[in-house]
Sequence to fold (885 residues):
Amino acid sequence: MNSIETTSDLLKPTTRLKRRYRVERWFKRLGLTAIALSLSFVAFLFFTIFSDGYTAFKQSYIELEVHFAAEEFSQEKLANADYPGLVKHAMRTMFPEVTSREGKKFLYSLISPAAAYTLQNMVEADPKMIGTTQKVWVLADDDVDMLMKGKIDRSLGEGNRRVRDIQLAWIDRLESENRLETRFNKTFFTTGDSREPELAGILGAVKGSFFTLLITLSLSFPIGVAAAVYLEEFAPENKWTDLIEININNLAAVPSIIFGLLGLAIFINFWGLPRSTPMVGGLVLTLMTLPTIIIAGRASLKSVPPSIREAALGVGASKMQTVTHHVLPLAMPGMLTGTIIGMAQALGETAPLLMIGMVAFIVDVPGGITDPSAVLPVQIYLWADSPERGFTEKTAAAIMILLTFLIAMNSLAVFLRKKFEIKW
Amino acid sequence: MYSYLLPCILLFSTGAYYWGASRANSIAEASGGMRSLHSLPSHYGMLTALSSALPALLLFIIWQMVEDTIVTSLVAKSLPAELLQLSANELTLVLNEVKNVAFGGFGAHNTAPAIQTAADLYLSTRSWMRNLLGMGTIFCCLVPAVIAYRSINKDLRARNLVEGTVKIFLIACSTVAILTTLGIVLSVVFEALIFFQSVNFSDFLLGLQWSPQTAMRVDQAGSSGAFGAVPVFVGTLLIALIAMAVAIPIGLLAAIYLSEYASSRMRTWAKPMLEILAGIPTVVYGFFAALTVAPLIRDFGQSLGLQVSSESALAAGLVMGIMIIPFVSSLSDDVIHAVPQSMRDGSLALGATRFETIMLVIIPAALPGIVGSILLAVSRAIGETMIVVMAAGLSANLTFNPLEAVTTVTVQIVTLLVGDQEFDSPKTLAAFALGLLLFVFTLFLNFIALRVVRRYREQYE
Fold:
C-alpha cells in the first residue's frame, strides 16, 4: 500500500522540487541580468559620449561686412594693422544702435578673437583687398556656438546663463538675416590646443600620439619578439629564467602610474631627456607594453607544433635557422596581433604620461619626436578639466576620435587572427 | 655629417653584407662547390655586416651618452678666472646659461661677453668633436669589416659566430623586464628614502592628517605640511571596495552564466562585447564618471534629501567597478572552464539542478582561481588612476561615507608631481613614498594571485 503511494508521488513534483526549480530559474535570470547590465553600461557610455560629442563637428560662423579702410594699412607691415579694430568696426556698423560702452563689450564678445587672424590672413594673401568692403565669415564665440547648438538653456534667468538677453536678441537678428550659421568644423581637425574652445583642435594631439606610438612600436616590437623567442625557444630551465618570467608576469599587472614614476626619475631626472616629448613618452610606454607583447608572443610560439621544429632540425638546420626560418614566420600573425593590442593599450594610456610632463599646454602641432606635444588621452583629460562649456563637446568628440582609432586597431587584430589563424 | 651617421652605418653594413657574401661565393667556386664551405654565404655576409655595424654603433651610442659632459667640462676649463671661483652650484647655473645661449634658447639676447665667448666655444668644440667622431665611426665601420672580409675562408665558422651574436641580443632583450623592475624599485626607493629622512616612517604610515602643501612663509595659514597617509589609504580602500561591490557580483554572475548556461552562439558575441569594456581607455571612464555619473548621483541623492558631494567616492567607485567587470568575468570564466566536465556530469547525474551543481561543485572547485582573479582585480582597482583623478576629490577626508569626497594614493601622486617640481621638497618626494607603497602592495597582491591561479591550473591539468 505504501509503495503504490510512493510511485504516484514520484511522478508528481513535490513542493521541494518545485522550489529547487524555481531557484534554478531565478539564478539563470540573475546571470542574464548581469550580462544585460554590463552590456547596457557599454551602450549608455557610448550613447552619452556620442550625444555629447557629435555637435563638436559643427561650428557657428558669423558673416561680417568688413571695410578694409586704406588708412588702417598706412604702416609698413601688413601685420601691424589693427585687425581686431576692423572686426569691431564691422560689428558697430551692423548694430549702429549699440552705443554704450558695456553694450559694445557684449557686442564684440559675440565674435571669436580668431576673427582678427582670419582677416589678417586674407589681407596678407591678397593685399589688393585694402580699400574694399568684403563679406567675411568669421568664427563666432563659443558662447554663441553653445547657444546655437542648444546647449545653453534660453528659458533660464539672465543671471544663470552666460548669454545676456540683449545678446540673445542680436543673435536672433543675425540668424534671421542669415548671417549666422553652423558649418562643418574644419578647425577641429587642423589645429592644436587653444584656450578658446572654438579654436581648439585635435591635430596636435593626434600627431603627438602618432610619434609616441611610433617610438613605442619601433622599440617594443623587436625587443618583445626577441625576448619571447629567447624565453620560449632557447632559455634553459633555471632560476634566472624563472626570475625573468615572474618579472614579466608581475610587470603586466603593475599599475601604469608606477611606470610614469620610473620615467620621471630615470629618463628625465637621471638621463636628462627632454620633458613632455614623444621620445620619453614612447620609452615609458615601451616598458609598459613589453609584458603584453612578450606574453602574447610566447603564447603564439607555443602554439607552433613541435613537429615543425623537429622536422627542421632533422634536415640539418641549426637551432637558430629553425626558429628564424620556420617557427617565427608561423608564429608571426599571433605576435602581430599581440603587438597591435599592446599598441591599442599604449594609445589609450594616460596616467604615466601625466608623470612625465605631457600635460603641458601646447599650442603648436609637433613636428618630430623631440618637440613637446600632447597625446590624445591627455588632451581629453585636459579638456575635461577645462571649465568652459564649449570644451565638453570637444572632449566627447576627442573621445570619439580616440575610440575610432582603438576600434580600428582592435578590428585589425581580430581580422589578422581570423585570417592567419592556423588550426594544427 | 653627424646627423647622417646612422644612415651611413646602415649603408656601410649593407654593403659589407654583399661584399662578404660574394667573397664566400667566390671561395666556394674556387674550392669545389658550396659544400666545401663551413657556413652559407649569407652567414659570411652577415658576419662582415655585423663586424662593420656593431663597433660603429657602440662608439656612436657611447658618444651620445658622454658628449654633453665632455664638451661642458672642456668649456668650463676655459671660463674666465672669476667665474671659475664660483661654487659648484653657481658654476652649473653659468654653464646652463652658456648652453641656453649656444642653442639660442630662452634668454639668448643681451648676455655677458664672457658667456657669449663660452657659448661660441661650446658650439665650436662640439662641432670639431663631432667631426672627429664621424671619422672615428667610419673608421670603425670599415676596418673591422675589412678584417672580417680578409679572414673569410672555407673553414671559418661564420654561422656559429653570427648565431652567437644573435643569441646574445636575444638574451639582452629578455633581461629588459628585469631591468625595468630594477629601475622601478631603484627610482621609487631612492626618492622615498630621501623623503623618510625628513618625515618619520611611522608618522607617514599611521598619521591621520594629510596636507602635503608645505608653507612657503612662516605666517602662511592652512599649510601645515602633514604627511599622515591613513586618510589617503582609507579613501583608496573605500573606492576600491565600492568598485569591487559592483564588479564581483556582476562579473562572477556573467562568467557563470556564460560558461554554464549560455549557448555557444551567445558566448561568441557576448564575450567580445564584454571585452569592449576592458578596451575603453580609463580617461574615457573618467570623463563619464565626472560629467555623467557624478551629477546623476548628486541629483538623485538630493531628491532623497541626502547631501552628496559632487566628487563623491560613490561615482568614482561605481564607474571603476564597471571598468573592472570584464577583468573579473574573463578571468573567472577561464577558471570555471578549467573545472573538469566529469565533475559537472557526476553532479547532474545524481539529480542536482544546474544551480546546485554550480553552487556545490563548480564554485568550491574553482574557488582558489576565483579568489586569485578577484585579487588581481583588486590590485587593478587600487592602481587605477585616471577615473579617480577626474572624478574623486583632492582633499584627504578620513571617512567611510561613500557620499563624501575622498582622495586616493594615485590621485595624490598625480597632484603632487604634475606641474613644477623641485626634487628637494618633501611634497614631491612624498609622491615617491606613496608610489613605493602602491608598488609594494600591488606587487604583493599580484604575486599571491598569480601563484594561486597557477597552482590551481596545475591541479586540474
